[in-house]
Structure prediction request, 283 residues.
Amino acid sequence: RIVFLNGSFLPLEEAKVPFMDRGFLFGDGVYEGIGVLDGRLIDNEAHLERLERSLSEVRIPNPYTRAEWTSLQGEIVRRNGMQEGFIYFQVTRGVAERDFFFPENAKPTVAMFTQAKAIVHAPAAEKGIAVVTVPDLRWERRDIKSISLLAQVLAKQAAKEAGAQEAWLVDEGFVTEGGSSSAFIVTPTGSIVVRPLSHAILPGITRKSLLRLSKEGGIALEERRFTVEEAYEAAEAFLTSASNFVLPVVSIDGRPVADGKPGPITRKLRELYLQMASAPALA
Ligand code: PMP
Prediction:
């Protein structure tokens, strides 16, 4: 596997990051993850825009222009012969003697890799997945895509140990989002409900596309918070993320969502998303 590190493409085994990297010592960095279908990056402009915002919020200089990022991404996809999967990349504040204050002359560390993965024909997309709710223990700037993911690691491991595939994080009785996904329910009257953007959640890029597709498809949408109790009573539930697109959620805390099968609105939205992602990018 070929990865990218600080200006070079090289075999994974040869890609080494210095011991004093602030990403390693402090989790001082931000990242992005983008879905790849038929060798094309899905919604890349929106991901690069979110990267720019994350970097500027934590005051790490952006090492590349959007055009440079795009060409590096294209090259890593080509070099790995990637058709379907995921591109991950992160930027840390760089290497310096351990000290909390920003280093004066550190250069950001840039690392990028690809992961091949079946997104379109994933079994989870057919059967749906189970989620469990856990307290949202994260910091108050969840809109920044920080590489400090300890709370998500613990939440998702708790979900796994409870037999589920994702954790839905709960703050003051309301679901914020998934450990690594945006959370949606469908009301008994057929409206999609999703939490509005704020510092409490990551602005999901797949969420954004899904909202556009649901408007175009004439599906009612309510951007508001929902409680765990409302989710238990929902007609359907689903999640979105760049590496999964749209996945049905068929059980929450061990209770089946409606009849415990993926619902029609979720199926329709997944179909619309797949159509969008499969269409050749407009010039
Ligand atoms: N929320 C969180 C906390 C996430 O980690 C992710 C995945 N990056 C998402 C939502 C979904 O965002 P996106 O659709 O941009 O992948």
Notes: The domain at 2-116 is CATH 3.30.470.10 (D-amino Acid Aminotransferase; Chain A, domain 1). The pocket of 4'-deoxy-4'-aminopyridoxal-5'-phosphate is lined by residues 33, 177, 180-182, 202, 204-207, 240-242 (CB under 6 Å). The chain has two domains: 2-116, 123-278.
